[in-house]
Each structure stands twice: as structure tokens, then as C-alpha cells.
Write a structure and sequence with these properties.
Radius of gyration: 20 Å
Structural class: alpha/beta
Order of helices and strands: HHEHEEHEHEHHEHEHEHEHH
Bound molecules: fructose -6-phosphate
Helix content: 40-55%
Distance between the termini: 38 Å
Shape: globular
Number of helices: 12
Largest sheet: 5 strands, parallel
Strand order of the largest sheet: 2-1-3-4-5
């Protein structure tokens, strides 16, 4: 599975080669990204990148089986499902096609691809045959490419080219960092909290998902400043002290670093061990993908250290066998 992560440079290349192949000529009220799991989280990246860019479009992420009633008409919707067969995403897609034609599909296969093609909707076809969660860069850059080419730039083609070079230069550093984090988490053998400061919540969520799916462990996510208004109190008298904290920090973010420093001091004073991931990169997309790469590789390594198959997600498969029945009208 490691090779899927090492293939991220090639995924960026693929997305770059298709940059501009799809554009839209509408003036959307907002951008919606809908999908589940490793596909749905792509929306969180688009959302945070857009929120950091002055004057860009608002982005709404829908990870659900139902479509919020206010979405339709003038909104630009990206429907993302790596497999193209996720029941919740298909249900939202069928609802959407009744309300708008401003739909772009991101998928590698499946019913979604067929249904989109049948309706002449644009399809961005991503690399086949890997785990959905490892197709993050291509799915993300495909969406950013459409927005850039349509005049709603969040990340420019130039920045995407820079990202490719950055990933090439940082791959071995990311691997080293990932392996040392995995060794530390394994030797501590405690429940994991992934903590960070805003606007990096997407990385904590992505990290949680990666350690859930690859390492087969539950993970708690905590983000300061909101953390300091509720979670912080929970650490006064926890039911168990069996926790360690992985703190993700952007060293270039002065406020974020100070807030994370406060968090670190607090956890330490309560006796919890802190592991740290300092982000590298110049642009936010570089930082987010560097962090995602380290977290992905660390979660795979942790699975290996535990003698588990990082690729297998049996419980998701079990849920997928029954979900159609569970969400029927
Ligand atoms: C598997 C994974 C899952 C899937 C999710 C939705 O690698 O990451 O979280 O992404 O079950 O499936 P897709 O992505 O095929 O729509």
C-alpha cells in the first residue's frame, strides 16, 4: 500500500496534464463538494483552501445520504466517489440531477460514471485500482483545476506545478517522519488524539480517517481555539489516562503556533505525551499534502508494526452490504 502514497507525485502529474479539460461557464452562488469517506474529505481540503483565499467562492461540503434543501439551481456541485458505487453519494447525485445541470463528477469507475455519461455531465476520471483514500491528490487537483480554468481560482496551475516539485523534494523526508511517528505511537500503545490549530482541522480529520482505516484504531480530533471552549475541560478528569497526543503545527502561522503551544503545555501539565508533526511547504496546499502524506504513511507503518493489513477495511465493506436497506425511503 505504501506505493499508492509514493505515487502521489504521479497523481499530481496526471491532474496537471488534464488541467483545463473541464470548465464551467456559470456564475455559481457557491461550490458544493459531496462524497463520503476518502472521497468526501476532498471537499474539506477545497473548503479550507477556498476560505484562505480572499474573494473566492464559498464551499459547502456534504457528507451525507441527503441533499440540503437549499442546494440546486445556481450552485456548482462536484460529486466525488472514487469507486462510483457509494450508495449515499449516488442517492445525492440522483436528487441533484433533478435540480441542476451544474454537476461535475470525479470518479474512477462504477454506476456514477455510467449515470453521469448517460446524462452528458463532465466526468473527471481518476487513476483506477487503488484505495480511494490514497487518490486524494488527483481528486483534489481535478476539482481545483476546474475552478481555476473557470475563473474561480483557489489554487493556480502554477501553484500545482510547484506542489509537484515540492512533493518530489520532500518525499524522503515525509517517509522518515512518518516512520518515526509510527514507531513512537506503537511503542506508546495508547489511544490517539490528533490535535491541531485552525485552519488545519482538515488535517486532523484526514489523519483520524487514515489511522482509522489503515491502522484500525479509533482516534479523537481536537482543534484549538474551539478546543479551549470545551474539550480542555474533559482532560481535567478523564475516565482513562490511556491517551497520547499527536500535535500538528504550521510553524509559519504565528497565532496558530502560539495556540498550539498553549495546547502542548496544557496536555503536558496533565501528564500526556506529545508527539509533534511540524508542517513543511510554502503554500497551504503544499503544507496540507505534506501533512497528509506523513499521516498516511505513518498510519500504514503502524498497521505493519501491528501485523495488520493497512488496505483491508472489512467493517466498511460490511456496512456497504447493508446501507442500501438502511437508507431506503
Ligand atoms: C477507502 C476509503 C473509504 C471510501 C468510502 C467511500 O479507501 O477511504 O473511506 O472512500 O467508503 O467510497 P468511495 O470513495 O468509493 O465513494
Amino acid at each position: 500500500m505504501e506505493e499508492y502514497y509514493l505515487g502521489w507525485i504521479e497523481q499530481v502529474e496526471r491532474a496537471l496534464s488534464r488541467w483545463g479539460s473541464v470548465s464551467v461557464s456559470i456564475e455559481p452562488r457557491l461550490v458544493v463538494v459531496t462524497g463520503m469517506g476518502g472521497s468526501g474529505v476532498v471537499g474539506d481540503y477545497v473548503e479550507v483552501l477556498s476560505s484562505l483565499k480572499e474573494g473566492s467562492l464559498p464551499v459547502l461540503v456534504v457528507k451525507d445520504h441527503s441533499l440540503p434543501g437549499y442546494i440546486g439551481g445556481n450552485d456548482l456541485v462536484f460529486v466525488v466517489s472514487y469507486s462510483g458505487n457509494t450508495v449515499e453519494t449516488l442517492r445525492v447525485f440522483y436528487r441533484l440531477v433533478e435540480k441542476t445541470r451544474n454537476i461535475v463528477v470525479v470518479t474512477s469507475n462504477g454506476v456514477l460514471m455510467e449515470e453521469a455519461r448517460k446524462r452528458n455531465l463532465p466526468v473527471l476520471e481518476v487513476i483506477k485500482g487503488i484505495a480511494p483514500r490514497t487518490a486524494l491528490p488527483e481528486m483534489l487537483l481535478n476539482i481545483l483545476g476546474v475552478l481555476d480554468t473557470s475563473g474561480y481560482t483557489i489554487v493556480s496551475k502554477e501553484e500545482a506545478v510547484g506542489l509537484k516539485k515540492f512533493l518530489e523534494d520532500s518525499m524522503s523526508d515525509a517517509m522518515d517522519k512518518a516512520y518515526s511517528l509510527a514507531l513512537d505511537i506503537h511503542s506508546l500503545s495508547k489511544n490517539l488524539v490528533i490535535a491541531t490549530h485552525s485552519p488545519l482541522q482538515v488535517l486532523a480529520v484526514r489523519g483520524k480517517n487514515e489511522f482509522n482505516e489503515n491502522s484500525k484504531i479509533p482516534v479523537k480530533v481536537e482543534v484549538i481555539p474551539e478546543w479551549a471552549h470545551n474539550d480542555i475541560v474533559g482532560w481535567e478528569k478523564p475516565l482513562t489516562r490511556d491517551w497520547c497526543v499527536l500535535l500538528i503545527v504550521d510553524p509559519d502561522d504565528r497565532i496558530g503556533s502560539r495556540l498550539a503551544g498553549f495546547m502542548e503545555e496544557y496536555y503536558r501539565s496533565r501528564g500526556f505525551t506529545i508527539l509533534k508533526l511540524l508542517l513543511k511547504g510554502t503554500t497551504m496546499i503544499e503544507k496540507l499534502l505534506y501533512g497528509s502524506l506523513v499521516l498516511g504513511l505513518a498510519s500504514v507503518k503502524l498497521a505493519r508494526l501491528r501485523g495488520l493489513d493497512p488496505l483491508a477495511t472489512e467493517s466498511i465493506a460490511m456496512y456497504k452490504r447493508v446501507v442500501k436497506e438502511l437508507i431506503r425511503d
